[in-house]
Amino acid sequence: MINRVTHQTVQRSTLGNLQQNLSKMADLQAKMSSGKNINVPSDDPAGASDMLRLRGEQRAQTQFARNADDGNGWLTTVDSALTSSLTSMRRARDLVVQGGNGGLGATSREALAAEVDGLRAALLEQANTSYLGRSVFAGTSDAGVAFTDTYVFTGTPGSGVERRVAENTSVRVDADGAAVYGEGASSVFALLETVSATLRSGGDVTSHLAAMDSRFESMLTQVSGVGARQNRVQDAQSTLLETQQSTKAQLSAIEDVDLAGIILELQMQEVAYQGALGAAGKVLQPTLMEFLR
User: Judging by DSSP bridges, how do beta strands 162-166 and 169-172 pair with one another?
Assistant: First the structure.
């Protein structure tokens, strides 16, 4: 049996093919102008799903990097304050040893006591160090300072400021002021106040050396802990940088076009379209208007 082919059938088939060619050219031009392989999810449903997943990972990585940068700022501030405090404590200890010299007169002892008072004030200032308006030694407290002028610790006991630097990794970025400096009558501030009073009264100031050494060791322990935590944050920053670059490369492989390949494909499609137009001009039935010309 022979199928009947009419001019109308040929016209429809030819116009349909031309329309497909135009549609393909339009898609290629859209990809070339946008630089993206996937402009709408229907272009590649599987690829679009992967893109959404990778973009979600990118947002999480960006937040983790922001947290790590903030945490590093906190820990740097804490480390700087503790380093200054250790320097002040070393100087205070030297003054105590110097004050133990029984040959010092009242004027010399007064001068030593005045310097100790200055070191105590410096320590109190260092203990109230803040980062972005928050005390780095007061935990989650919003009191503004970690210690009052009467050496009362205003921090929240047992609390700590943490930053999540990876999916399952959080790092504490502050320090416990009570553990570093003590509090109230047992604080380093009260100790230095007692030292200066002993110097002025002519007593045996070296009796305070053991207490000063104990407080110095507490500060050293905290400095060590802060250093270890800062290393974790910096390691997380390095890992995040590598992960972000990897995720960006994966996303680019899915959505970015091969510009040279697209241009070549578009040129080939244009040639095919021009050929189809030439063939259509010979196949399509002339219209009445063309006869009238």
Answer: antiparallel
